[in-house]
Design a protein that fits this description.
This protein is 44% helix and 13% strand. A hairpin with a 4-residue loop joins strand 25 and strand 26. The longest helix is centred in the middle third of the chain and has 25 residues. Helix 13 crosses helix 14 and helix 17 packs across helix 18.
Length: 823
């Protein structure tokens, strides 16, 4: 500890630490730095607050937590040997027939105790170990919050308030000497329960049914309900103090008796060693990399398809925020994936800053300008962008479809999807993947068991740690989602971590892109046209070719090769985008490795011949055509009734529908109209014109304060040390010339203040001052004046550990430090 006298408080224990140890505490518990404590006492006080202790307990591994739980039920203070005995047991048989792994516990306990000391949850020497009071309150047993160890209160706690007569009856039934002193009676009963020989003799006389009752309570919960007329076995236990009353209908098994029945162990199954992560399969690392690269390329293709789907303006935003169930189903159908997977891709694009709301009155989702920049990147850089966004995102797509705390449905892109633990769980899951040899896929069950051992606690409102459940535990669910999402994204391949993902985690995006680049096929500049009006892309296409082909044809199937189908509608779409028939013929001839089939040429010419034959403008809307027979045919068609058409002239029809609805209605009827401007020119509709204003990706919600870097830690430790020295500085009593009546701040006249600081500046000594800042906040400081002029004193402030300048009129008074004080 660095001192010969044992520390009496946590503050003294922290004060005795070295700077490196204090920095380790602030690194492990960064919430203690917000703001930087003024001194060691304030640091110790803050380290004992409920919120900070809960957060520290949640970051303990299972054995460190079990050690803290054992200290919570041990006497305060507890010797090291007592703590060890609570974890290993007393070596006696408890009837479980289980090996207590004493050697492993003995070997692991020093490290667990060092962790608790480093995080200021335990202080004191091995002979006097203290668990901080707040942690003891959180982990100690009570009827409202049973102990995680399953132990009940001590005999002394359970008999508090019991009448001396009732205590005498218990002593007599248990065969103990009579005493009318309540303290002696409680001590005698506790001594009986802790004496293995006498306790064994007492239990030998117990009815078999009474032992069965004890068996049900021994490992917790220790509380049971009794009727006004208990059964003989329960009455036998009550008479001898083995069951003590908590209320008129509730009894409890006292801690000392339970520990005897447990053979001295606080935990049924101590876990000093982390569960071993087992391998589910071993695969060729190169095959894993190729599979992951292929899946990563499919991920890029899926996100590109999503951006194209919402290119001209995506779905409207719900009033409560997010995407409607119908729109999610529509996106899933367009992407040919399940709704759960579609929600993952939508959330990933949003987290990567590729999708956002447009901010218009009729608010909709649309691609952002950053999506165009992303599409221009090489495939490997696009993948690292997505993977990096996924690793840092706190929005959790797996929650979509569930309900929030108020029973409201959670929707894609909606609120309440942030879970601050998600990034840490993802990184930890991938770190466990990386701990296995390349090409090895971990067993999911042992993976979850390892994660639960590393973080056994989770927060629950209103603010106490509880043990997690099974797969319903949030961290476990996030871990399972991480395994699935990593496979979808190409982080893993065939269940094992890829080398590009290892590079991303260890070296960064550039190294990962370099590993991935050789595994991604080069984009092609050609397709294979077939006589059945399809085109086959034998691999990924160059972006200009892919964009033009997606306008001219519809995607029929995807896989190793993509099949496009040409239809009248798709050709018309290309003509609407401003392409002429000659342009389409030239495009196909240039990019096809096979001759352009005659049926495809006929299809293009036929659609082009009819394209624009009808012209639509605003009347509300009108249709004009040089061929009166076509207009007669439209008017005679019953399907046009909803458009409410009427003839204005032999070649013109007027409609009460808007131009867009009229255009869509005639196309559904099988015509190929074209929109025209007020000047009669054909309007060209270009795809992908709608973009949101520049948007930044959603900011992840941190789980807590960020871990400070080494520079900040060193500065914080210096400031705490300096503040502690200033707070503990011994000063001479200053005269109360201002009539403060012995206030906290020194009080001197302006003349005395000026003379004292000038003298201190000449001698280089330190003084104690009272200071009131511009906001009226008063404080005490220890300063070493350097220069006094112009109504200001420039001094080294020991409290702030820096040189500052103070106006003399704001100094309330000054006092010299005691002669024995060193600064």
């Amino acid at each position: 500890m660095g001192t010969t006298t044992p520390p009496r408080t946590l503050a003294e224990a922290l004060r005795a630490r070295g700077d490196e140890s204090l920095a380790g505490l602030l690194r492990a518990r960064p919430d203690l730095l917000s703001p930087v404590p003024n001194d060691i006492t304030q640091l110790a006080t803050r380290a004992g607050t409920r919120a900070s202790v809960v957060r520290a307990l949640e970051h303990l591994d299972r054995f460190a937590l079990q050690t803290a739980e054992a200290l919570a039920v041990a006497p305060d203070p507890a010797p090291y040997d007592t703590l060890l005995a609570l974890l290993t047991g007393d070596g006696q048989d408890d009837g479980e027939g289980r090996d207590d792994a004493g050697a492993a516990i003995t070997a692991a306990l020093p490290d667990a105790l060092a962790t608790l000391r480093e995080q200021a949850l335990v202080w004191g020497e091995d002979a006097r170990l203290h668990l901080v009071r707040t942690a003891r309150e959180l982990l100690a047993p009570s009827p409202q919050h049973p102990s995680p160890t399953g132990l009940g209160p001590t005999v002394s706690e359970a008999t508090a308030g019991m009448s001396p007569g009732r205590l005498q009856e218990i002593l007599t039934a248990a065969g103990l000497p009579a005493t009318y002193d309540p303290v002696s009676a409680v001590t005698a009963l506790a001594g009986l329960f802790t004496d293995r020989t006498r306790m064994a003799e007492l239990l030998d006389t117990a009815p078999v049914e009474a032992l069965s009752v004890l068996d049900r309570l021994v490992w917790g919960p220790p509380y049971g309900e009794v009727t006004p007329n208990p059964t003989p076995p329960v009455q036998w236990l009550r008479d001898r103090g083995l069951l003590l009353p908590v209320s008129t209908r509730t009894v409890v098994l006292p801690r000392e008796a339970a520990l005897h029945l447990r053979a001295g162990r606080a935990h049924r199954v101590p876990e000093p060693v982390a569960p071993v992560l087992l391998a589910a399969a071993e695969r060729d690392p190169q095959a894993v990399d190729r599979a992951a690269a292929g899946q990563g390329f499919m991920a890029l293709s899926t996100v590109e398809d999503l951006l194209k789907l919402w290119n001209n303006g995506g779905p409207a935003i719900l009033r409560a925020g997010g995407l409607s169930v119908r729109e999610l189903k529509r996106a899933a159908g367009a992407l040919d994936v399940s709704e759960t997977v579609a929600a993952f891709w939508i959330e990933l694009a949003y987290a990567a800053g590729l999708l956002a709301s447009d901010g218009e009155t009729d608010e909709r989702y649309a691609p952002t300008p950053a999506s165009d920049e992303w599409l221009d990147l090489p495939a490997q850089d696009r993948w690292t962008h997505l993977a990096t966004a996924w690793l840092a995102a706190t929005r959790t797509a797996g929650l979509i479809g569930g309900q929030d705390a108020k029973g409201r449905a959670l929707s894609a892109l909606g609120p309440d999807l942030d879970r601050s633990a998600a990034p840490e769980v993802r990184h930890r899951v991938l770190a466990l993947f990386a701990s296995l040899p390349p090409g090895t896929a971990p067993d999911p069950q042992t993976l979850l068991a390892r994660l639960r051992w590393e973080r056994p606690l989770r927060s629950t409102a209103p603010g106490g740690p509880t043990a997690p459940g099974d797969a319903s535990d949030l961290r476990s669910r996030i871990a399972l989602w991480t395994v699935n999402d990593a496979e979808l994204l190409g982080i893993t391949g065939r269940g094992a971590l890829s080398s590009q993902a290892r590079a991303l985690l260890d070296e960064g995006p550039d190294a990962a892109a370099a590993r991935l680049a050789p595994l991604i096929p080069e984009p092609l500049d050609h397709v294979l046209l077939q006589a059945d009006l399809t085109a086959v892309a034998p691999g990924p296409l160059e972006r200009p070719l892919a964009e033009m082909l997606s306008v001219l044809a519809d995607v029929e199937s995807k896989g190793g090769a993509t099949v496009y189908r040409f239809t009248p509608g798709s050709v018309r779409r290309a003509l609407d985008a401003g392409r002429a028939a000659t342009d389409l013929h030239a495009f196909l001839a240039t990019h096809s490795r096979t001759p352009v089939p005659q049926p495809l040429s006929y299809l293009i010419d036929d659609v082009a011949r009819r394209h624009g034959h009808l012209r639509i403008g605003a009347a509300s809307a009108y249709v004009r055509c040089d061929d009166e027979a076509v207009l007669n045919e439209i008017l005679a068609d019953k399907r046009s009734a909803t458009l409410r058409l009427r003839r204005l002239a032999p070649t013109v029809l007027a409609a009460q529908a808007d131009p867009g609805s009229l255009l869509d209605g005639l196309r559904e009827m099988g015509y190929a109209p074209a929109a025209e401007s007020a000047e009669g020119d054909v309007l060209i509709t270009r795809a992908g014109a709608r973009r949101t204003p520049p948007r930044t990706p959603p900011v992840p919600v941190p789980e807590g304060p960020p871990v400070p870097d080494a520079t900040l830690l060193a500065a914080a430790v210096r400031a705490v040390r300096a503040g502690d020295s200033a707070a503990r500085a011994v000063h001479k009593d200053a005269p109360d010339t201002a009539g403060a009546g012995g206030g906290n701040l020194p009080r001197t006249t302006p003349a005395e203040t000026l003379a004292t600081v000038q003298a201190a500046a000449m001698t280089g000594s330190a003084v104690w001052i009272g200071y009131v800042n511009a906001e009226g906040a008063a404080s005490q400081r220890v300063i070493a004046p350097v220069k006094v002029e112009g109504g200001f004193v420039t001094a080294y402030d020991h409290t702030a550990d820096e040189v500052r300048t103070y106006p003399l009129h704001r100094i309330t008074g000054v006092a010299e430090l005691a002669d024995e004080q060193t600064t």
